[in-house]
């Protein structure tokens, strides 16, 4: 599921970057320059490893481009990532539905320093003002299909929200309550029919609507369709295999 979440956001962020210029409704995403990385212990070696990992995570989040992690200039800067740290602290967490128990290093990076790394190397810099996305995600497990939200499927919901925060994307999952179901069915979402979904989406007043479906074994696949509330269909992606 973790890889599925990462793949969905790689596609979603790419679509959003193409759309953002034409959108006026946006919310400021917080925590862009923060990272939380699991560590085995509180040794210097583990701290340096976590800081280097968090450094790249923040660069990906701020740029909106996962390929920056493979840039030679970024990899060179990663070797001296501690110079960009403003503060850090350790946190012990209990196991949750979407995360593991253990010790985490919470890191705050210098915003100007991170931005300068991107600018110096002609890499993208995505504004903190990013459109909030309404998500309609149908999930098939065996013979059952459900809509993903905090009530129906808390595990996938929380993992997707965690991945969204990691990538600096703000999500709003549809309630799929009586008002929604009067306009759209689970079959509409599974069939990737935008018209009823967009009609039901009006009440949420988000500038971007994401339709997605995920099927678990025996024949895993996922499909995603992204729409703007002020435009027609803006993108369609299909992935085979999870």
Percent strand? 25-35%
**What is the average per-residue confidence, as pLDDT, rounded to a whole number?**
81
Oligomer: single chain
User: Spans with pLDDT under 50 lasting ≥5 residues?
Assistant: 17-24, 230-242
Short descriptors:
single chain; 242 residues; alpha+beta; 6-stranded mixed beta sheet; 8 helices; disordered C terminus
Give your account of this protein's structure.
This protein has helices spanning 2-19, 44-63, 72-78, 111-120, 154-167, 178-181, 186-190, 194-201, and strands at 27-28, 34-39, 85-93, 102-109, 129-130, 133-141, 144-147, 171-173, 208-215, 221-228, 233-240. The chain has eight helices and eleven strands. A hairpin with a 4-residue loop joins strand 10 (221-228) and strand 11 (233-240).
Task: Write the topology of this structure.
Blueprint: H1 2-19, E1 27-28, E2 34-39, H2 44-63, H3 72-78, E3 85-93, E4 102-109, H4 111-120, E5 129-130, E6 133-141, E7 144-147, H5 154-167, E8 171-173, H6 178-181, H7 186-190, H8 194-201, E9 208-215, E10 221-228, E11 233-240
Parallel strand pairs: 6-8, 6-9
Antiparallel strand pairs: 1-5, 2-4, 3-4, 6-7, 9-10, 10-11
What's this model, at a glance?
The chain is α+β, with helices and mostly antiparallel strands and 242 residues long.
């Amino acid at each position: 599921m973790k890889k599925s979440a990462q793949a969905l956001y790689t596609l979603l962020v790419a679509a959003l970057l193409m759309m953002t210029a034409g959108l006026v409704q946006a919310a400021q995403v917080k925590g862009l320059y923060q990272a939380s990385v699991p560590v085995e212990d509180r040794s210097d070696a583990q701290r340096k490893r976590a800081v280097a990992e968090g450094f790249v995570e923040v660069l990906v989040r701020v740029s909106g481009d996962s390929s920056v992690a493979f840039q030679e200039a970024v990899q060179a800067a990663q070797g001296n990532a501690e110079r960009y740290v403003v503060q850090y602290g350790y946190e012990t967490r209990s196991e949750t539905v979407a995360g593991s128990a253990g010790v985490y290093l919470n890191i705050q990076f210098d915003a100007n320093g991170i931005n300068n790394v991107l600018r110096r190397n002609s890499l993208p810099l995505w504004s903190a003002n990013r459109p909030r996305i309404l998500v309609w995600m149908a999930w098939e497990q065996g013979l059952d299909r459900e809509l993903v939200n905090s009530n129906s499927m808390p595990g996938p919901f929380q993992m997707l929200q965690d991945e969204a925060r990691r990538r600096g994307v703000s999500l709003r999952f549809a309630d799929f309550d009586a008002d929604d179901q009067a306009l759209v069915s689970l079959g509409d979402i599974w069939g990737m029919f935008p018209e009823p979904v967009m009609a039901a989406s009006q009440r949420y007043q988000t500038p971007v609507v994401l339709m997605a479906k995920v099927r678990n074994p025996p024949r895993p696949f996922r499909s995603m369709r992204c729409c703007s509330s002020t435009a027609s269909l803006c993108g369609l992606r299909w992935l085979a295999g999870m």
